[in-house]
Amino acid sequence: MAEDAAASAPLCVEVVFSAQAGQTQEWTLHLPPQACLQDALRAVGLEASACEAGIWGRRAERAQRLRDGDRVELYRPLLVDPKVARRERFARQGARGAGLFSRQRPGGKAGY
């Protein structure tokens, strides 16, 4: 009987979306037990979004069923490849201004 009660209990899920850097929107929803990712997005008005969606940081199909406590996320497309951005940042800062030795003690030996 406890299994039947758990199967009919509403799901509590969190939906998170960041339209732009520094702005995050979060919603806590109570959905029917057989709800899918698309149902959660529809409940907050984001079902038409072309962004990739996922659960707990892993991409997921919009038809995937949700479990209690899931965190549904919408992912913006990357503007710059992170590897390229790191290389460009390093080139701007130079070898002395970045990485492990950027905060070297005054008068200290190189590498310490």
From TrEMBL:
InterPro entries (UniProt xref): Mopterin_synth/thiamin_S_b, RnfH, RnfH_sf
Domain of life here?
Bacteria
Family, per the entry? Belongs to the UPF0125 (RnfH) family.
**UniProt-recorded name of the protein:** UPF0125 protein M9799_14385
- Entry coiled-coil feature ranges: none
Instruction: Give the organism the record lists.
Output: Comamonas endophytica
Question: What is the residue range of the signal peptide feature?
Answer: none
